[in-house]
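Much of our argument rests on the idea that a fold can be written as discrete symbols. Part of our work consisted of pairing the sequence of a single chain with a tokenised description of its backbone. No coordinates are needed to read the tokens, only the vocabulary itself. The record that follows shows the chain in one-letter code together with its fold in token form.
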Amino acid sequence: MCGVLGLVSHEPVNQLLYDGLQMLQHRGQDAAGIVTAEGNKFHMHKSKGMVREAFRTRNMRDLVGNAGIAHVRYPTAGNAGSSAEAQPFYVSSPFGIVLAHNGNLTNTAELYENVCHQHLRHVNTNSDSEVLLNVFAHELRQEVSGNTDHRLTVDNIFNAVSQVHKLVRGAYGVVAMIAGYGMVAFRDPYGIRPLALGTQVGEDGKTAYAVSSESVAFNALAFDLERDIAPGEAVFITLDGEFFSRQCSDKAVLSPCLFEYVYFARPDSVIDGVSVYQARLDMGVTLAEKIKRELPVDDIDVVMPIPDTSRPSAMELAVALDKPYREGLIKNRYIGRTFIMPGQATRKKSVRQKLSPMETEFEGKSVLLVDDSIVRGTTSREIVEMVRAAGARKVYLASAAPEVRYPNVYGIDMPTREELIANGRTVAQIAAEIGCDGIVFQDLDELEAAVKALNPEIVSFDSSCFNGVYQTGDIDEAYLQRLSAEKAGCGSLIHPSKMEHSISVSGDEE
């Protein structure tokens, strides 16, 4: 999962992009990058680390211009240890393009062979985002080749996006800058990954535009949420602030990622017309009904969230069960989100650093812990051990999401079935593995209904990590096995021949 941000304004945007990235930090902690556009010239800085670590004053001074794009990254493809994999990516032809991408492509190898390799386009990293950039660049070149003056038109841009939709499979929310022209943003035809449009009208009457993975970024920038960019839609804003939009896919359907509402998005975001906070409150209500059927409610003394994402669900659940709500686990806010930390050992170590139990809240009590989801089980197991050591008499666990039984291939780092605690286990076996006295998972139908009730225009969801149904229709057993092999370091979803032509690039990590 990553976060993207784009701005076209009538004033310098470097500070605005930095502030907006801070609001999207929860979507990626591995690397950050900003590119600004000054006329026909780009200024770029990207580095490993959190936003506050990646940029220094000297870097910000160099990022001049009234338009730009930015990115925070956590890796689902490519090498997490390399600054060269940080985004945005750049190609010089045609015109000069920089691109930032949130999501994951499922036909990267095919795209590399049929577009990049065949048309002699160099890809320097293992990132599917760089492949996507080169596919878009190639289609732009094809469009403009028929123009006698070699100038790019708005129709050319939208036609190129239409071709991208036909060629590319997977999930993608994209912001890009075309040197001398402006910013283009587009979203995959299923709307799996979110993308929102914001506006700000200045005192001079001029409108500035912003595009972000989440509407919460607009809050810090004093922009208004205009609307979500529709699945398959593209928008283009010139450097002078002219706005254009077009539906670029004839197969578009709104089927957003259900896990955004469960875990990834900030509660103060609105995604596809749904308040994430309200969705999480409603998840708690439906979960409470199942708990009444499956756990000895009279034996529960107190309800506690596993901070932070589960708080809204836990609060409503406690009300529905008529049980006290308490905060017994105190979070160290300087430790990153364990779910998106690469490496099992890193995640396990960080749990004890991140959460500290207050013994007075646990001693002699039967506790119902509420979490947003249970993926690998590492965090849950460690927390149950901590809570028991703090004196809890019994520990029950409730998940606002169903069992995660399948890999997610659209940009969330749960790539192999072997890593998922629910894989091949019953609910009782999961409870035994975690070490709790009982566990309840949300029903998928109830979860989908709770979110859809807030926006009936949502046709369906990408619930693939829960039910194994992949929206793009191209995921089979062979693909999942290749994905497992890649995760284990045995291969690449980009064709191996690419590696023969790669070079090393040292990023600025100061």
Q: What stands out?
A: The longest helix spans residues 276-294. The radius of gyration is 23 Å. Residues 72 and 492 are 23 Å apart (CA to CA).
